[in-house]
Amino acid sequence: QVHLVESGGGLVQAGGSLRLSCAASGSIFSINDMGWYRQAPGKQRELVAVISSGGSSNYTDSVKGRFTISRDNVKRTVYLQMNSLKPRDTAVYYCRAEGTYHSGSYYLADFTSWGQGTQVTVSS
Question: How much is the average pLDDT of 11-39?
Answer without folding.
Answer: 97
